[in-house]
Every structure is written in C-alpha cells, then in structure tokens.
Amino acid sequence: MYDIERVRANAAYYLSRGNCPRCGGANPVEPGFKRCRPCAIRESEERKRRRKRYAEQGRCPSCGRPRDDDSYKTCSICRANSKAQHEAMKQQRQEK
Q1: SS3 state at 26
Q2: How many angstroms separate the CA atoms of 55 and 61, rounded?
Q3: Which of 11, 12, 22, 18 is nearest to 32 (CA)?
Q4: Which residue(s) pair with 19 in the sheet?
Q5: Helix, strand, or coil (residue 66)
Q6: What is each CA distance from 61 to 5, 15, 43, 78, 96, in whole angstroms?
Q7: Are 63 and 78 in contact (CB under 8 A)?
Q8: Which residues contact 55 (CB under 8 A, 6 or more apart)?
C-alpha cells in the first residue's frame, strides 16, 4: 500500500520544480499543465481505451458502473454529476 500524503507531496515537489510527477521528473511540464506532453498523451490514450471497453461491456463509459437505464450512455450518478457541474458553470457565467 502507498501513503497518499507522500504521493501528493512528491507530486507537488516535482511540479514546483517544473518537472512531470508521473514520469519521475524526466520531462519538463509546460506552463499551465500538470503533466509532460508524453505522459498527457499516454493518459489520454488510456482513458479512450477504458471508455471504449466500458461502452462495449454496456457499462457507463465515465465511471464503469452498470447503467441503470439503457436509453442513456451514462449511469444516473454521472448524469447527475454532469448536470450539477453544468449548472454551476452556468451560474458562474451569469455572475460575471
């Protein structure tokens, strides 16, 4: 098992030095990002494969839970979270 606080501290240390925490600081991180380009591309490809596999299995492509309604692509929990996030963004735009 790993210590989550130690993992977070290490990631913060690498980022403070401008290095990627995923590959151990081997590559620099571009300003405004948290991963180097190769790690970001690798994570994106992994995410795409996982979402495709979940969809093929009839599960929610976002979280992997079983879908409770086949007329939707995502589960009810992810739909609720997405709706709440959308409403929060809408509220922020109206406040500006």
Answers
A1: coil
A2: 5
A3: 18
A4: 28
A5: strand
A6: 29, 30, 16, 10, 33
A7: yes
A8: 61, 73
Look at 95 and 47; give whichever has higher pLDDT: 47
Separation CA 49–CA 72 (nearest Å) = 20
Please state, in angstroms and as integers, the Cα–Cα distance from residue 94 to each residue in 29, 81, 87, following that order.
34, 20, 11
Please name the residue that has the structure tokens 């620099």. Answer: 28
19 three-class SS: strand
Enumerate the β-bridge partners of residue 59. 66
Please report where in the chains the tokens 């500006």 appear, as a residue.
Answer: 96
pLDDT digits (tens, 9 = 90+) for 25-82: 788 998 888 899 999 999 999 999 999 999 999 999 999 999 988 899 999 999 999 9
